[in-house]
Amino acid sequence: xxxxxxxxxxxxxxxxxxxxxxxxxxxxxxxxxxxxxxxxxxxxxxxxxxxxxxxxxxxxxxxxxxxxxxxxxxxxxxxxxxxxxxxxxxxxxxxxxxxxxxxxxxxxxxxxxxxxxxxxxxxxxxxxxxxxxxxxxxxxxxxxxxxxxxxxxxxxxxxxxxxxxxxxxxxxxxxxxxxxxxxxxxxxxxxxxxxxxxxxxxxxxxxxxxxxxxxxxxxxxxxxxxxxxxxxxxxxxxxxxxxxxxxxxxxxxxxxxxxxxxxxxxxxxxxxxxxxxxxxxxxxxxxxxxxxxxxxxxxxxxxxxxxxxxxxxxxxxxxxxxxxxxxxxxxxxxxxxxxxxxxxxxxxxxxxxxxxxxxxxxxxxxxxxxxxxxxxxxxxxxxxxxxxxxxxxxxxxxxxxxxxxxxxxxxxxxxxxxxxxxxxxxxxxxxxxxxxxxxxxxxxxxxxxxxxxxxxxxxxxxxxxxxxxxxxxxxxxxxxxxxxxxxxxxxxxxxxxxxxxxxxxxxxxxxxxxxxxxxxx
Length: 521
Known about the structure:
Blueprint: E1 17-23, H1 29-39, E2 47-53, E3 58-64, H2 67-70, H3 73-78, E4 83-89, E5 104-108, E6 111-118, H4 124-131, H5 141-153, H6 165-173, E7 182-186, E8 191-195, E9 204-208, E10 211-215, H7 219-223, E11 227-231, E12 236-241, E13 244-249, E14 260-261, H8 263-268, E15 274-275, E16 278-279, H9 280-294, E17 301-304, H10 310-320, E18 328-330, H11 343-353, E19 354-356, H12 358-361, E20 365-370, H13 377-388, E21 393-398, H14 420-423, H15 426-433, E22 437-440, H16 443-449, E23 457-458, H17 460-463, H18 472-478, E24 511-514
Parallel strand pairs: 14-23, 17-20, 20-21, 21-22
Antiparallel strand pairs: 1-4, 1-10, 2-3, 2-4, 3-24, 5-6, 6-7, 7-8, 8-12, 9-10, 9-11, 12-13, 15-16, 18-19
């Protein structure tokens, strides 16, 4: 049995999900999907699932935990077919329970469909009300999307020969969705991929020798032997079947406004991903170079916070001429630490993840580079470890601007009261973290560092400028800055923590849903 909880000391931003789709006759698509999901595991570690079709039957398998927890050789061998979609989940709307694992499955008359979603809708409550879904029965925005799809398909439940039923249903429901959605969907014979008109979350198309692949990030194409064709454009839908793929523009041109999440470049995406045609790794190196130009300091060693801070640290060292070295060792076999009962035990939890290399640190002036500071708890504990290991000075450099605003488009960052930079000035944060100096990369330099000149980005978490309006009932509480959550600036202490422990369901075995006999997900 899996137990769901929130780690109060995990100071990294959390992404929504990773999605994968494949159409490949004569190939083991369940194994390809497994490999693709493994490559996207960093985008979500709470649940994994896939749906596979052999042309007449769609089978869905999903479970809580990592991809390796959800599938084994026996399970994959039983999933035969030539098209599939997959999903790896981090919960932003809906708690982390088995029912909210994806793909979400619906069986409507002659139609059998499955859908997997990366992102976050901002009008979930409105859509649920339109559908007549009772309060308390809505488990996630993805569940609402599936209900919309089922409702549309139910208008012609017996058109089993209509091979474009899913395409027409998607075209009907997509304009109703507001917010972030990169989606893969399928029926017995088609795989469909679509991005919202802002393109908040990535989605790309790849080519196999005898098939096609859709994935949140390009490394998932590499691992299955596909080559990158291109990224889907904002507002674009691609339909893949036996004839190849077709592209459809879902939204009016005036509604299309590219706003890829800027934090895909800063933190979320794998360094070997390409976004807007740019290498994410090289972009992060450039961030470090620009940070060195912006905030130089005399020091003996530049070190990155593993793993996401290392490319920017390399860039900082290259530009500044200060030697680059390792100062912290990360335990690669640990995911999220346990909920500890007191501050002392929580500090030990951080040490489970990071441990200092004392010989590299003692007596040295350090430049410590990280990609972001959200709540500050992990950063503060890390600085304390460096001090204990004998660091003469600690100069913190952050390769993104201060993180001040919560995200409503697929990141889980809580309310403003939990965000360090929303409540404190840079100098106050410096004092709180106990560092000798602190500097954040400016927004203009960050945008230049991406290399995507003229491309559109969402920077709402940094500026408070939300491209899609946030409903008052969704934003009025999360945008508040309760003083109870603000760190005490006058004394050493941890940021006030809000724990949200959701109820869970037992999931000893993955449950299988097989169309058309079985009921809805």
